[in-house]
Structure formats: C-alpha cells, structure tokens
Automatic annotation (TrEMBL):
Keyword Isomerase recorded: yes
Keyword tRNA processing assigned: yes
Ranges of Acidic residues composition bias in the record: 531-560
UniProt biased composition (Polar residues): 48-59
Residue ranges, compositional bias (Low complexity): 1-19, 29-46
Location of the Pseudouridine synthase I TruA alpha/beta domain: 356-462
InterPro entries: PsdUridine_synth_cat_dom_sf, PsdUridine_synth_TruA, PsdUridine_synth_TruA_a/b_dom, PsdUridine_synth_TruA_C, PUS1/PUS2-like, TruA/RsuA/RluB/E/F_N
Name of the protein described by the UniProt record: tRNA pseudouridine synthase A
Region described as Disordered: 1-109, 296-320, 530-560
Highest taxon of source: Eukaryota
Pfam families noted in UniProt: PseudoU_synth_1
Organism of origin: Myxozyma melibiosi
Residue ranges with Basic and acidic residues bias: 68-105, 302-313
Length: 560
C-alpha cells in the first residue's frame, strides 16, 4: 500500500511541475532529495579540496567518476582543478601572405615520368646541389612556375618524390634522361609551359603517366652513353715526351711485349719533316719544347714524388723560358696542331679501337674504373651489353669518332676511364688482351678522359613497359621524340663539343698531361713491361674533380 501511495504522489508531483517555472521545479527537487553525509557536514572553504572515496565515486559516476578517482582529488572550484594536455589552445594565426584571396586550390597530383634532354656546359652536374647551378635546380623551378608542382611543395623536392634515372657529372650532357615525380599534369600544354621557363639548353620532350610505385632510377633496365673523341687521340705519344721515352725504354728491356705501330711512327716522321722545313732541327730545341709542355701541363698531384732519379728534370723544369724559346715553341705547337687536325685514322687502327672496347662486354669487375672501390666489393661488378665504334666523320677540319656504350649500370667516372684505357692501349702499342688484366685484383692508375665528349644517350625501360601497358599507361620511350632529339643534339651538344675542342684543345691538353706525367711508373701497365711495380713510389691521377668527390662521399648513384 505504501508503494502504491508513493507512486500516486510522484505522478501528481510530475503533473504539477509541468505547469511551474523551471526555477521552482529545481528548488523543489532539491528540497525533496534525501539527506547525505555531505549535506550534514560543515561547509567547506571555497579553495579547500575534498577527498573522494574511489569506490563510491566510480559507482555513482561511472566512467566520469573513475576518471576523477584516478586523479586522486578534485576541487569544488573549477579554476583549481588539474589541467590536462595543452593549455594554449586558441584561434590559428594565419601565415604571412595567407588569405582567402590567394589560397591555392588543391589539384590532383599524378605519378609521372618526365623525359628530358640537356647540355651540361655551365652546370655543376645533374643533381640539386645548392648553391651550385645544376640541371635539376633549373628544371624544378620551371615545374613550379608552370604549375606542375604546387607552391606548397616548392620548398622541398622530396615532397613530390623527385628522382632522376641517371645522375650525370659536371659538364656531362644528356640527349635523354628521365625524372619521376608526382606532378599536376591536367593542362594539355603543360610541356610547352615548362619549356617556356627553361633555358634553351634544357628541354622537356614529353611526360608519361606511370604507376604510383614507379621509380625512374630503380626501374631503369639499362643506359646508353655516347662518347665523342677526335681520332688523333689514338696517335702514339710524342717520342720526346716522358711517356714516349718510357715506352721505348721498356720495349728495349722487354722485347716482344709491344705491338708495332708503323702508322704512328709515320705521323711523327711527317711532323719532324715539317719542323725541318721550318728550320727547327736541333735536338735540344725539341727537348726544351718537351720541357715547356711539362711546365704547362698543369699536372695535379696527390702527394710528393719521392723518387731520386728526377732531380735534373726538376731543375730544368724550374728554369724560366726566354722570349726566343717561346717564339720557337709557338711555331712547333702550330705545326703539330695542323698535323693532328689533318690526321685521318686508318681502317686498321680503327679496328684496333673496336677490338679494345669490345673487351668490356659482359660482366666484369670494374673496381679500377671508379673511386674508392675495392676488388672484393660486390657492387664493382657491372654488366656491359654492347659497345660499338662508328665510322669517322669530319667536323670543321677535325676527324671524330663516336663510341656507344650500352650497359646495365655504371659507376662514377667508369665510362671516361674505360675510354681512356682503350685509347692508351692503342696509343702505346699495348696488346689489346691486356685490358682484361684491369678486371683483376691489382690496383691500377687509370686516368679519366675529358667530360667534354660524354653524353647520356637515353635510359631504357624495356622491362617495365609491359607492366605499364597492363595498367593502361603508355610506353616509356624516347622514340616519338627522335627527330627533336637529333636536332637538339646537333645544335646544343655536338656543335658545342666541337667548338670547345677547337677553341681550347681539350683532348690534346689531356693526352699531353698523361704523356708528361712525372708520377713514378704509373703508366708502366701500358708499356712492354705490362704491370706496375707495387714497390715503386708512384703518384695517383687525382684532379680537383676527384678530390672534391672523395671529400663529398656522395658518389653512390653518380655515373659517367
């Protein structure tokens, strides 16, 4: 009966509350609540904390009560309650220049391959290297200006996954190279927009959509390089040069160890005849000319040469040249230069060059053809697919030949050292088969040929093209742009190579440097002796470029 009465009273109370103001309802409800121990306790000060029993709190408050219990205490004053997390939340301040009017709309990015070509003259290589002027630096700026990369991502190439297929060295050219990145390529004329922001010596041939996982460096199956070199580079050294004398000395000491070279001997006989016609016949004059060439060779050295058999040469080299000597030497140089430019390589000599480069085909240990690479390093083994030598072609009075090198991958300076090794074997009369010995454990000093003649023809993606097509993407190939590429090569690469050589005598200076090198017996490998003496004090061919790269230690993915 008591429960029924209580229920009836509650219903009547709810009916009356429905018609009362909220304030009266609250006061009435408070007065009807049962008394608790807290109600009968003395009133607490406003700043006094009250200890809470964890069990009763968790039972009454559920999750909220449990949280308070873990705090161990609470305050009746909200300002004194423990504060959690950040306390400095507030409205976000806008960055400088940010606003509704200039906020760049988000546009979709697509993983793509950008096919490019460039002339490396005047650039400090391919890869970004602030503050140096590089190909990637100009290219990345052009992509941003053309809208292919958003301004939000313009401060760091890594944000768009920027990567190159081949990292070429300072001064090296590329008729074809590839960079991959996440690009905004909605505009149909995006290629033209990018090119409008590039110098004429850098061109974008086309852009191809790829899969999201595409990496132009890792997925590159092979690379084709071309090296242009004047045919006179395969002539033997001047007989009065240090290297020429060493070849003769070792031939007498080790008879039968050198290939006869009637064509080379005939060339220097013609030069001697021309000098005689000009009234220059004294032997000591030619010796002085050789000394002058050593003075002007600008030979870099890694360390002091400790040999004791060169003192007289050093004393002579230190003597200044008279005006009369300089006048005679300029006449000698002019005669030699004319004869070199007039030289036309014979079919027999051209066949020797072809045989020399063919030795590189296949899988070999190229530890001697780069920097800081040991024989036991597995990465020193590289696979060369094909090497070929073109027929000679005449450009402005100088005969040139082209060497094509198709390899799976290359190391830093590898191609330039391969070219120099082949040239030295032909010049010095070395048996062509001796090139194979450079793949063995013995450490050799192999100079690197000038960067001027080297260009990347194109990277190849035969292996991944089938997969790209299965995803509805186009083939990654330079073939559609062959006509443009050939015109670009002729104007911005070939013509510049020819002009620089004619103006600066780059190849003549390089081989004169080798022939005048006073670094112990560093060139004995190319003589009849056939190998270097491990006990001899010999200097190493290290120029400023080599020293810079040894200090930087970042040659891992560099080629050429």
């Amino acid at each position: 009966m008591e429960s029924e009465a209580a229920s009836t009273t509650a219903q009547q109370q709810n009916t009356e509350n429905a018609t009362k103001p909220p304030s009266e309802v609250s006061a009435q409800t408070s007065s009807l609540a049962p008394a608790t121990a807290a109600d009968s306790a003395p009133a607490a000060d406003a700043n006094e904390t009250v200890q809470v029993d964890s069990r009763s709190t968790s039972n009454r408050g559920g999750k909220k009560g449990g949280k308070r219990a873990r705090d161990g205490q609470q305050s009746k004053n909200p300002d004194m309650r423990p504060k959690r997390g950040r306390t400095d939340w507030g409205p976000r301040t806008k960055r400088e220049g940010e606003g509704e009017g200039n906020k760049e709309p988000r546009r979709p990015k697509r993983k793509a391959a950008c096919l490019i070509g460039y002339c490396g003259t005047g650039y400090h290589g391919m890869q970004l290297n602030p503050p140096q002027k590089t190909i990637e630096g100009d290219l990345f700026d052009a992509l941003v200006k053309a809208g292919a990369i958003s301004k939000d991502n313009s401060d760091d190439p890594k944000k768009v996954g920027f990567m190159r297929a081949a990292r070429t060295d300072k001064g090296v050219h590329a008729a074809g190279n590839v960079i991959s990145a996440k690009l905004i390529i909605e505009d149909e004329d995006i290629v033209e927009k990018i090119n409008s922001h590039l110098p004429e010596q850098i061109r974008v041939w086309g852009i191809t959509r790829t899969t999201n996982g595409f990496d132009c460096h890792k997925h590159c199956g092979s690379r084709i390089y071309e090296y242009l070199i004047p045919s006179f580079s395969f002539l033997p050294p001047r007989p009065t040069s240090l290297f020429g004398k060493r070849i003769k000395e070792m031939e007498e000491k080790y008879p039968g160890g050198r290939r006869k070279d009637p064509e080379g001997e005939a060339f220097w006989a013609r030069v001697s005849a021309k000098l005689a016609e000009a009234g220059i016949t004294q032997e000591h004059v030619l010796e002085d000319y050789a000394r002058m060439l050593r003075q002007t060779a600008n030979i870099p050295r890694e360390s002091g040469d400790k040999r004791t058999d060169r003192g007289s040469d050093d004393e002579l080299d230190a003597q200044p040249l008279t005006e009369e000597q300089m006048e005679i030497f300029n006449r000698i140089r002019a005669i030699e230069d004319r004869e070199r430019r007039a030289f036309r390589i014979s079919l027999d000599r051209l066949e020797l060059v072809r045989k020399a480069v063919k030795v590189y085909e296949g899988s070999h240990n190229f530890h001697n053809f780069t920097l800081k690479k040991e024989y036991t390093d597995p990465s020193a083994r590289r696979y060369m697919k094909n090497l070929s030598v073109s027929r000679p072609h005449l450009i402005e009075g100088t005969e040139w030949i082209s060497i094509k090198i198709h390899g799976q991958s290359f190391m830093l300076h590898q191609i330039r050292k391969m070219v120099c090794m082949a040239a030295q074997a032909v010049r010095a009369g070395t048996p062509i088969s001796r090139i194979k010995e450079s793949f063995y454990k013995q450490k050799l000093n192999i100079p690197k040929a000038p960067a001027l003649g080297l260009l990347l023809e194109r990277p190849m993606y035969d292996g991944i093209n089938e997969r790209l097509q299965s995803y509805g993407r186009g083939e990654l190939t330079f073939d559609p742009y062959n006509e443009q590429i050939e015109a670009f090569k002729q104007k911005y690469i070939y013509d510049k190579i020819y002009a620089v050589e004619l103006r600066e005598n780059t190849f003549y200076s390089f081989f004169n440097f080798i022939d005048s090198f006073k670094g112990g017996h560093a060139m004995d490998f190319f003589t009849a002796k056939g190998e270097e003496d491990d006990t001899a004090e010999s200097e190493v061919f290290l120029d400023e470029e080599d020293k810079e790269e040894l200090l930087s230690g970042d040659e891992a993915d560099r080629e050429g």
